[in-house]
Design brief:
By secondary structure, the protein is α+β, with helices and mostly antiparallel strands. It folds into three domains: about 240 residues, Reverse transcriptase/Diguanylate cyclase domain (Alpha-Beta Plaits); about 100 residues, DNA polymerase, Y-family, little finger domain (Dna Ligase, domain 1, 2-Layer Sandwich); about 80 residues, no CATH class. It has 14 helices and 20 strands. The protein has a six-stranded antiparallel β-sheet, with no helix packed on it.
């Protein structure tokens, strides 16, 4: 029990965090594993208790696991989702104390000094933790001691509570309980130092020379001879504001007025963090407890309420107010960094107006459907540009060509002609054309490192053809596989 002055640390280890997260939502009977591709092989990432009883273990090849257990069920692992779930557990653990940090990818560490009396006793607090986690379907091992290292060792190697003499509580545990690398643990066992008690009695100078200072530092931290801090995770900024109305409203003008007030508050938060909103979600609660939502996706990250407010009008106009709206909640669901920029007196608002126009059109047809052409680093005509969403790209660079290019490009269209010189007369798209002037050739060689069926005929000799009928065409000739084609038309 804590005496109120001694530091007390709790370590929570979730040995099956990833599989427990999946099984909480999808009940599966029998052996179950999560797999992840590692070193060009599909291996077990996490497994449930039934799979462990079948002799399976993490890191095992999935093919070997299926041979051992034909009824094995599996799913692909999602490490990023597991990290998010661990952060949720960290926030939950703050009910016990304010100092909660992450312990690797599958554990938490809590500094409960001075907090145990809120639950009656330390034993009652630990029991409450275990019961709540078990009800949530999570496997957990709990260790509690005077130091962070000792609590981690107890949680990962047998569970337990220790107080006072840490060496007496840890001396029978393996040296791996000191949070050292596996290679160091194996080397110590080969020297006959299998337990923490053996390591504590061994001469320190030879150990320091052979394994470096980290080994003895971990030993001293576990025994309380060296301090080790617990750094709580900072809460991420929450970009949301809410307004509860004394009387229900239903007119668009009233909703827009409330939105303007919320935008001013939200933009202050965004400016304080040097970020801007890319996606905003307005939730309107009706008096019948129903919710209506209006989402606004912006072409650029903004934090100017006067620019954002008009863009919200179309979405809010489609909201069904019912018997009235009594609460408004505005949240920036996606933000981006917006560093401070120097404002020039000669700059105009042309770019801002274009971004607002893209945002307005995007609310109707989707931001992804508004696209722009961007230059690409290729001398192949049809590869010299890419098409990108205008909201997620900036106009940059330009096309640099020593020879003019047609304003209209299309797939090569064959024409009947002979010889390497441009034909005097030819027929194209049911039109009989006569060559008035031919400029060229411009030889373009295919990019051999890229597969392109249109360029399998080899190099091309391009000609600019001005016809007597007024057409200005771009023709090319393929010497390796003789033939003439039309690929573009000049303005």
């Amino acid at each position: 029990m804590s005496d109120g002055t001694r530091r007390r640390v709790v370590s929570l280890w979730f040995p099956r965090l990833a599989s427990d997260r999946i099984l909480r939502r999808h009940l599966i009977d029998g052996p179950f594993v999560l797999t992840l591709k590692q070193k060009n092989a599909n291996r077990i990432y996490c497994l449930n208790a039934d799979a462990s009883r079948q002799g399976l273990h993490a890191g095992m090849s999935y093919a070997d696991a299926r041979a051992f257990c034909p009824k094995l069920q599996s799913r692909m692992a999602e490490p990023e989702q597991d990290k998010r779930f661990l952060h949720i557990l960290r926030r939950w653990a703050m009910r016990y104390c304010p100092w909660v940090g992450l312990e690797g990818d599958d554990g938490l560490v809590l500094d409960i000094t001075g907090s145990a009396h809120l639950y009656g006793s330390e034993h009652a607090m630990l029991s409450d933790m275990r019961v709540r986690l078990m009800r949530a379907g999570l496997s957990v091992q709990i260790g509690c001691a005077d130091t962070r290292g000792a609590a981690w060792a107890l949680a990962h190697h047998g569970e337990g509570v220790a107080s006072g003499d840490m060496l007496a509580a840890l001396k029978t545990l393996p040296v791996a309980a000191l949070r050292i690398e596996d290679s160091v643990s194996v080397a110590l066992q080969r020297l006959g130092l299998r337990h923490i008690g053996d390591l504590a009695q061994a001469p320190r100078a030879p150990l320091s020379r052979r394994f470096g200072p980290d080994l003895l530092l971990r030993l001293d931290q576990a025994l309380g001879q060296q301090p080790e801090a617990i750094t709580p995770q900072t809460e991420p900024p929450h970009y949301a504001v809410r307004m509860t109305l004394p009387e229900p409203i239903g007119l668009l003008a009233d909703v827009m007025a409330g939105t303007e007030r919320l935008l001013v508050q939200l933009c202050k938060k965004l400016k304080a963090q040097d970020v801007g909103a890319r996606t905003l979600c307005m939730t309107l609660r009706r008096v019948d407890q129903g919710d209506q939502q209006a989402e606004l996706r912006l072409a650029r990250a903004l934090r100017d309420p006067q620019r954002i407010l008009p863009l919200f009008e179309r979405g809010l106009a489609e909201v069904e107010a019912g018997f009235g709206i009594d609460q408004l909640r505005l949240e920036a669901t996606q933000v981006e960094s917006v560093p401070v920029q120097q404002i020039s007196h000669v700059s105009d608002g042309g770019k801002d107006k274009l971004d607002d126009l893209i945002s307005r059109l995007g609310t109707r047809i989707g931001l992804e459907n508004i696209q722009r052409f961007l230059p690409a680093d290729s001398h192949i005509p049809e590869r010299s540009f890419i098409v990108a969403p205008a909201a997620y790209s900036d106009p940059a660079g330009g096309w640099v060509n020593t020879q003019p290019r047609p304003i209209c490009l299309f797939p090569p269209e064959p024409i009947a002609a002979m010889g390497a010189r441009p034909p005097a007369r030819f027929r194209w798209r049911r039109m009989s054309l006569t060559t008035g002037r031919a400029t060229g050739p411009e030889r373009i060689i295919p990019e051999w490192w890229l597969e392109d069926d249109n360029w399998r005929s080899g190099l091309r000799d391009y000609w600019r053809i001005e016809t007597m009928q007024g057409r200005r065409l771009w023709l090319f000739y393929t010497p390796q596989n003789p033939g003439w084609f039309v690929q573009g038309e000049f303005a």
